[in-house]
Amino acid sequence: MAKLFLYNGPARAPLTLALAHGAGAPMDHAFMETMATGIADAGFRVARFEFPYMAKRREDTKKRPPDREPALRAKFVKVAETLNTDKLVIGGKSMGGRIASMVADEVGARGLVCLGYPFHAPGRPERVRADHLKTIAIPTLIVQGERDPFGTRDDIDGYALSPEVKLHFLMDGEHSFKPRKKSGRCEAENLSEAVAIVTAFMKRIAPK
């Protein structure tokens, strides 16, 4: 039987982050592992989980497309209910972060963390998927690579996002935050910076 959650960090942490995977990689992908262990090392609890289509892939190894949006949203709401804590932050990588952002107000999360938000499909900057981020009412952190094809720094500078949304750009990073060699920056540095920014955000919004 598949695990419902993959936990990192202390059970009595000041905040728990429910962290969803992106469209193509599971909850134990290297990116997810790096973020979860780094955030946990700062004293927070991270609860990773998988959407139904990814859980099925784990069972039979067959690749399948993501579930439809209503099913993804319903799963995240269920996750929030199962964790049953008033110290909950929700978020995710790419698609996981987008779905989290769509239910964050509904589930009463203390905060939202999006890692590489898919503002638009690559090559389609005119079709922005961020209307709800203009009105979101909870503290929100979006960590984005400067040259992410799903939303570059230049793209995002033109969006009228809610004042609750804080953006942090990683130098020369693409969708998984990896920079080019010529930038003088390495992937590990960007991932380390992402962990530090997320943990600083969680410390700011944690109950006093």
Tell me about this structure.
The chain is built from 6 helices and 7 strands; from the N terminus they run E-E-H-E-H-H-E-H-E-E-H-E-H. The chain is an alpha/beta fold and 208 residues long. The chain has one domain: Alpha/Beta hydrolase fold, catalytic domain (Rossmann fold), CATH 3.40.50. It has a 7-stranded mixed sheet, with helices on both faces. Helix 1 crosses helix 6 and helix 3 crosses helix 4. The chain is globular.
In short:
With 208 residues, the chain is an alpha/beta fold. The chain contains six helices and seven strands.
Keywords:
single chain; 208 residues; alpha/beta; Rossmann fold; 7-stranded mixed beta sheet; 6 helices; 7 strands
What are the SSEs and their pairings?
Blueprint lengths: L5 E3 L7 E5 L9 H12 L3 E5 L2 H9 L8 H15 L4 E6 L1 H13 L3 E5 L24 E6 L7 H4 L8 E6 L16 H19 L3
Parallel strand pairs: 2-3, 2-4, 4-5, 5-6, 6-7
Antiparallel strand pairs: 1-3
Helix pairs in contact: 1-6, 3-4
